[in-house]
């Protein structure tokens, strides 16, 4: 045992320059899944999202992108640009299934990985170069994923998450790239600043107004200038532009969850009250998911009776963060679980198997009204409090608890247990 501990200690204390971090990204994931199910879609321009004129593009094939189509574009505009495109409404259930297949392959192959969204993964291969080349191993893993799932996937490999993610983007479609240690800055220099993670459209326009278009310009700028222009994010973006990123891999765990419970001062059999509280709980948890840009794929309901016997029932669902999907599922589980002959002491809801990527999955709606409604309500909640806007069905719930640092850290997320 004593001979093993020093080796593990050296592994944990490795400097960032010795890390081997791979970023893997499934190419046009939703489109690729649809093509697996219907080969007639191969090589055709595909639009996935809401199928009505008021729908929005959630994903599109490379054939459609040649016409200027991109995700989040109104479907009507996309069809004007590419009239021959085939429009398919997204199927969350199928995408969830194939995402899990890829996750299972990666989980069995690497010591640590982070599932950053439904179709993106970071792999920490640090130390594995002692036994075989990390690039060769990742290449073989990529081939295994494609063979076992039929899905195309690309990857970038470097010393950190930022450079690897950018490398993946440059390698696409269906390819791979390795940035050797010491080559990070030179690799990034000629690329557009839009390639830097964290640089969204607003930040990009700010930099463009300063005459900054390429990453090499940011590399040559004083860090203080970036901070003056972009505030607290300026330093982080400046470091990323220079190929510096010490962000660790956050090991993925399907046990990560967001949950809430309610213990009653007086045991109750009031079904209307229980229904109202469950509605309020589920609505608030869905809001917290959207605020953290998270999706859940598993919902559980817990009931504790007056005799302290506790029963839990859970169900896997397609990835979602939508009230109108989660609330009915919660009520369905409660109906299956609830024994009307007994007084209820506690009820609770847990949403688990969380991943990032809420925006894109929500674009499968046939029109944008529901999503615009969610955005408007969430904006009011952010400004005036979680319960400033609630469903009438949930008004009997006087309070639903206090959120404990949602999505600001790695541990499971809990809502404080409050008595009513």
TrEMBL record:
Site (Substrate discrimination): 30
Cofactor detail note: Binds 2 magnesium ions per subunit.
GO molecular function: damaged DNA binding; DNA-directed DNA polymerase activity; magnesium ion binding
Residue sites binding Mg(2+) per the record: 25, 119
Entry keyword DNA-binding: yes
Superkingdom of the source species: Bacteria
Gene Ontology, cellular component aspect: cytosol
Active site residues of this protein: 120
Names of required cofactors: Mg(2+)
Subcellular compartments: Cytoplasm
Domain UmuC: 21-200
Keywords: Cytoplasm, DNA damage, DNA repair, DNA replication, DNA-binding, DNA-directed DNA polymerase, Magnesium, Metal-binding, Mutator protein, Nucleotidyltransferase, Transferase
Family annotation (PROSITE patterns): UMUC
GO biological process, one term: SOS response
EC number assigned by the record: 2.7.7.7
Catalytic activity of the protein: DNA(n) + a 2'-deoxyribonucleoside 5'-triphosphate = DNA(n+1) + diphosphate
Group of enzyme by EC: transferase
Family: Belongs to the DNA polymerase type-Y family.
Subunit annotation: Monomer.
Job description of the protein: Poorly processive, error-prone DNA polymerase involved in untargeted mutagenesis. Copies undamaged DNA at stalled replication forks, which arise in vivo from mismatched or misaligned primer ends. These misaligned primers can be extended by PolIV. Exhibits no 3'-5' exonuclease (proofreading) activity. May be involved in translesional synthesis, in conjunction with the beta clamp from PolIII.
Protein name as it appears in the record: DNA polymerase IV
Organism of origin: Phaeocystidibacter marisrubri
Gene that this sequence comes from: dinB
